Amino acid sequence: MAEILDGKKLRDKILLNLKGRIDKYDKKPSLAVILVGDNPASKIYVNNKKKTAEQLGIISQVINFPENVSEAELLNKVEELNNDNCINAILVQLPLPKHISKERVINAIKPEKDVDGFTPYNFGRLFSGVEPIVYPCTPKGVLLLLDEYGIKIEGKHVVVVGRSNIVGRPLSQMLLNRNATVTICHSYTKNLAQITKTADIVVSAVGKKIIEGEMLKSGCVIVDVGIFKDESGKTRGDVDFESASQIASYISPVPGGVGPMTIASLMLNTVELYENSFNF
Ligand code: NAP
């Protein structure tokens, strides 16, 4: 039976440590979150981020725009936050409505305040093998979880299922930069099971049930990033936990695995940007 990669436990440890770090500062770090529209999932994510930030003593503000906000208005707000010395970290909650270019809005964020690590500057550095100012939160959380359990990455064959800019792509680069041999799979991949069977570590970030125990090599490590609701409304991951946990040596659960690590990484990134701001 696989050992659980406990994201909640590690999140609590990271946040406790961060609280001590923040308590030392008279002037507190600050995070601004831009939220557009009424997407219920986005609202929940943003509220969780705000709540966690406040528990740590990070000053946080949510700037809520209606669904029909213009791109120009959003860009103006980003510019205002870029120039506001009281703000260290800016996050634009995705997805944005279709009439707004996600790329243009993200590109407008100053790299030194880009808490998600999504600007071309930070992405470009990551993809050229140079450290970005901060790493994207979910991939960072995945690596922190693997490191916490002493799981070696160097020389391992890691199969990443999913190639989004939020998870699969940056994670693959981070793994490559840590000397893993990385295979990236996506919706056009043929014979997924044959590929996952050769993996020492499988990270799945798809959003539907796609990984079964029989697709895995004995003793492999499974990190499940996926989140979706099944027919009964229950939160599920991409991996069939029952069968996979019989084969794997470690497995992250959903919920309680990567989700809490994403929040912990966001808080870490906010504090890192704040501390970096002393040098600008
Ligand atoms: P996304 O942008 O929808 O990307 C999904 C990826 O899965 C795409 O690259 C897609 O391939 C691939 N895919 C779809 N069907 C596939 C199949 N049959 N076989 C192999 N690959 C397939 O999603 P995302 O933003 O990366 O998020 C992925 C999942 O992670 C979602 O459930 C999301 O809710 C969850 N998530 C969790 C956290 C967390 O903190 N736990 C954070 C972010 C995301 P193509 O590129 O070919 O379309």
Keywords:
280 residues; alpha/beta; Rossmann fold; 2 domains; 6-stranded parallel beta sheet; 3-stranded parallel beta sheet; 10 helices; binds NADP nicotinamide-adenine-dinucleotide phosphate
Radius of gyration: 19 Å
Bound molecules: NADP nicotinamide-adenine-dinucleotide phosphate
Helix content: 40-55%
Structural class: alpha/beta
The level-1 CATH class of the largest domain: Alpha Beta
Shape label: globular
Average the pLDDT over all residues and give the rounded result. Answer: 97
Span between N and C termini? 50 Å
How much of the residues is beta strand, in percent?
A: 15-25%
How many domain modules?
A: 2
What is the count of DSSP helices, taking H or I runs of 4+ residues?
Answer: 10
What can you tell me about this protein's structure?
By secondary structure, the protein is α/β, with parallel strands linked by helices. The chain has 2 domains: 27-110, Leucine Dehydrogenase, chain A, domain 1 (Rossmann fold), CATH 3.40.50.10860; 137-259, NAD(P)-binding Rossmann-like Domain (Rossmann fold). Helix content is 41%, strand content 16%. It contains 10 helices and 11 strands. The strands form 3 sheets. A 6-stranded parallel beta sheet has the order 1-11-8-7-5-6, with helices on both faces. A 3-stranded parallel beta sheet has the order 3-2-4, with helices on both faces. α7 links the parallel β5 and β6 (181-185). It is globular, with a radius of gyration of 19 Å. The N and C termini lie far apart (50 Å). The chain binds NADP nicotinamide-adenine-dinucleotide phosphate. NADP nicotinamide-adenine-dinucleotide phosphate binds at residues 138, 161-164, 166-168, 185-189, 192, 205-207, 210, 225-228, 258-259, 262. The site of NADP nicotinamide-adenine-dinucleotide phosphate (NAP) has 25 residues, from α10.
